[in-house]
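Example 3.2
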Amino acid sequence: MDSTTLAYHARDMGYAICGLHVSYGQLTETKERACARTVAGKLGAVDYVEVSLDYLRRFGASSLTDRSMAVGDHRGDAEGIPTTYVPFRNANLLSIATSYAEARGAEAIFIGVQSSDYAGYPDCRPEFIEAFQQAIDLGTACPTRIRLCTPFVHLNKTEIVRRGIALGVPYEDTWSCYRSNEPACGRCDSCHYRLQAFYEAGVRDPIAYED
């Protein structure tokens, strides 16, 4: 949901879109891949690439990739790092995106980190993004200049949905559930926060839910 809204936001800013979809062994990779292809088509992406980081599944240690771990229901009192944290995932994703951007001569990489992710996911913090921008600056060939853009970094999910509605984002073609390829479970953290955002925005979520 966040990534698709972000792509529409980037296009609204005047960027041509090069879509990058990454599968890393997540439970819902089939549905996510199908959504990514549909969204890229609707955006009129000038390029679209799919990449597999299956080694993250083999590393495990996350309920999104390790089949021995269960994705739990949302708990409002939960503290600490959630089991859905994939170790250092965003660094892996941004490294691939940087290679892709440099090869394509792209000016910017957009990543949809947002304020509600900070507490649970250390690789979503603004400090991490700033550090990775330095890595991009130091690790790419001169005169490459790629900006790492996080326009949603100070927004919550409700504000992101409102922005997406204004941009005409096809939320029926997005997927957030951590557990199921269809219908969405309606009980995991990702479903909970998505449903809450649509409710607070006063808009009905167009995807189907089991619960």
